[in-house]
Amino acid sequence: MRGRGPTAGAVCAVTAAALFWSSSYAVTERLLEDVGPLAVGAVRFTLAALLLGLMVRMPRRRTARPDPRQRRQLHLSGLLGITVYFVLENVGVDLSTASDASLIVATYPLMTMLLELVVFRARLPLPRVAGVLLATLGVLLVVHNGARVGGGSRWLGDVLLLLGGLAWAGYNVLGKRASAGLDAVSVTYHQTLAGAAGFLLASLLEADDWRMPDATASALLVYLAVGCSVGGFLLYNYGLRRMASSVAVNILNLVPVFGVIGAVVINGESVRLAQLTGGVIIVAGVALGMIERGGGAAPKPDAGRRAPAAAEEPVALPPA
Fold first, then answer.
1. Nearest Cα to 102, choosing from 61, 157, 36?
2. Of 8, 166, 178, 201, which has the highest C-beta tally within 10 A?
3. Cα radius of gyration rounded to whole Å, the chain
4. Are 290 and 107 in contact (CB under 8 A)?
5. Contact present, 315 and 84 (Cβ < 8 Å)
């Protein structure tokens, strides 16, 4: 950045990406009234894979292609980071609430950080320890509130959302080296292709409940595919090229805030004081945990949603 701050366009792009991604929880909650959680993922990521496939094959596009070993790793990470992660998220949202999901997902960067520390044997500075503990306290408040208000079903949904964080962390670590030398669109395409295939197979479990979605549900599915899975990623990548990675990650801390607002506005959910308190604590813990994480240089495009973050780079929230 050479002493210059991010441009207004870059900030707007990353903020718009956060808005797209945060809205997906409320949109998914609305969709689950008419479409099964596995079918939602199958349609969403099949559409996204088709769009990304067209982008990869655009004329004048000359980028490195993954070798067979990279392709296998990308496909495996796609199954973990898309199929497994979003199955847990969609089912978790179905059992819990969009607002709980928005707040719990804010802890995923710290889960990834901890797994990286175990795998790469990195040192954990004191601020990050404090951040992990603080975010954990916030999650306990959110989950306890969910169990008290919504009963066992909501509690189970919150637990599944937390397990989704472990899947996301594993996806980051597994794909760390698979994206070396590749551009972000190619990485995203191969991972989304594998994730869509996994969802198509998983959706067969809901075959007895399949039915043609109405116009509203169809529009929401297109929104998830185009807006959240492709548009949000491209906007984030555009902004990431024009600002320090630490700035982009801090902007993504708006995701749980936007997510709760979306849950209230779109789904009419009520937010209790304990839930809000837990959310504030989670965001504070995430921000504290990011201290000293990265030197401010903008990473490669691969450091967005689909390209796993390196151990020395800030870990972004998983776009939903």
1. 157
2. 178
3. 18
4. no
5. no
d(CA 316, CA 248): 8
Which has more pLDDT, 204 or 242?
Answer: 204
């151990």: which residue's tokens? 311
In 3D, which of 88, 102, 111 has the Cα closest to residue 163?
A: 88
Report how far residue 306's alpha carbon sits from residue 159's, in angstroms, rounded to the nearest whole number: 24
Burial string for 194-232 (b: 16+ CB within 10 Å, else e) reads bbbbbbbebbeeeeeeeeebeeebeebbebbbbbbbbbb
DSSP state of 57: T
C-alpha span between 69 and 290 (Å, rounded): 32
Number of other CB atoms surrounding residue 247 within 10 Å: 21
Residues 37 and 40: their CA atoms lie apart, in Å, by 5
Residue 11 burial (10 A CB sphere; 0-12, 13-18, 19+): middle
Quick one: which of 240, 247, 263, 220 has its CA closest to 23? Answer: 263
pLDDT digits (tens, 9 = 90+) for 238-296: 786 777 655 666 677 677 777 777 778 877 777 778 777 877 887 787 677 666 544 44
Are 233 and 319 contacting, i.e. CB atoms less than 8 angstroms apart? yes
pTM for the full model? Answer: 0.71
Using the structure block, give the residue that is written with the tokens 């209230």: 264
- The rounded distance, in Å, linking the Cα atoms of 299 and 161 is 28
- Contact between 317 and 255 under an 8 Å Cβ cutoff? The reply is yes
CA–CA gap between residue 132 and residue 124 (Å, rounded):
10
Q: Are 27 and 76 in contact (CB under 8 A)?
A: no
Neighbour count for residue 261 (Cβ, 10 Å): 18
H or E segment to which residue 130 belongs: helix 126-174
Using an 8 Å Cβ cutoff, are 81 and 168 in contact? yes
Determine the Cα angle at 184 with ends 179 and 190, to 5°. 70
Cβ atoms of 190 and 71 within 8 Å: the answer is: yes
Query: What contacts 234, CB < 8 A, 6 or more positions away?
Result: none
